[in-house]
Amino acid sequence: MFRSFTAGPAVTAAILALQVVLPLVLIAWLGVFPAGSLAGFAVQAAGIGAFLFALARIAQWALPAWWLPRVYGALWLLAVVVHASAIAGAPVWPADAPGWAGLSVAMILLGLGAGFGAAALAGRRPPLVTIVDIANPFGAGQFLVGHGGGNRLVNGHLKTLDPRVERFRPWRGQSYALDFFGLGRWGLRAAGWHPSDPAAYAIFGAELRAPCAGTVRAAESRMPDFEVPRQDSVNRLGNHVILSLGYAEIVFAHMRQGSVQVAPGDVVAIGDRLGEVGNSGASTEPHLHIHAQRPAADGDPPLSGAPLALRIDGRFLVRGDRLKTGG
Question: So where does this one cross the membrane (predicted)?
């Protein structure tokens, strides 16, 4: 299974630098030190805007909050509006070396933002594989996609599609998987930055329901839920349910110990209770891993079947998308 993220000191510092400090510095540059030429200001505004857009599409916004890119967008727009009229009478091109240096930096930002932003948008296109349509698998709540989409920029699971890496072959079926975090009060995923208690995470204990009719092929409910960030690298699925549709299987992983309500051979209908989200298996923090695959060949590892894509309530979900349900 693909790990979401761990928040050790180095990772925490990187997240704060890239997703908080850098955007605020760029917005402050535009708001406090706008370029003194028409070309300079236009490229400065476009470059910062493109960079912020790409960052909003690529980064995981479960940590920090999912709504932060919207705040950045509003601040960027405010800075553009405030300075646009004042710059109208300025010369077209920079008049000094600092002006040209600023224009050069802005052009780099524009290139990076446009390139990575376009690649992130390309990840919204469903892959050229069979798509399995299912209903929302959650009970009440709001949930954020941490990994999902059609390319590795927005979905880290796709690394297991690489046929050159032998150790990925037993996990090939999960290549188009989705990882979901829960969103609680103020749109935050947990009570704290990275608490060790799994119960502090909004998704822990969230109800899981059958998103389609099928037959339970496998179920496990005895494995422990670990404190964050401990995990089980041997029993990677943890507590899980594998639901067979005949031509495809739906896999639910990292469920809560003792919560699984079904057993192999059970026939379920849409909406039947399967269990709850937990923090078992190879999970660095509570989340739901769900994917679709072809049934594995006899004798092969259970997750080695050909990967399929999921469409939930008619949506091909990618990183940053949200699911809401009232119950």
Answer: 12-32, 38-59, 71-93, 99-122
Rounded to the nearest integer, the mean pLDDT of the chain is 93
Angle CA(319)–CA(320)–CA(324) in degrees, nearest 5?
A: 115
* Residues contacting residue 246 through CB under 8 Å, at least 6 positions apart: 214
- 249-279 pLDDT, tens digit per residue, is 999 999 999 999 999 999 999 999 999 999 9
Q: CB of 132 within 8 A of CB of 290? A: no
User: Given the DSSP bridges, would you call strands 267-268 and 249-255 parallel, antiparallel or unpaired?
Assistant: unpaired
Distance CA(134)–CA(5), nearest Å, equals 27
Pair of tokens at residue 113: 């933002």
Enumerate domains of the chain plus CATH numbers.
9-122 (no CATH), 131-325 (2.70.70.10)
CA–CA separation, 27 vs 181, rounded Å?
A: 29
What the block records as the tokens of 200 is 């502090």
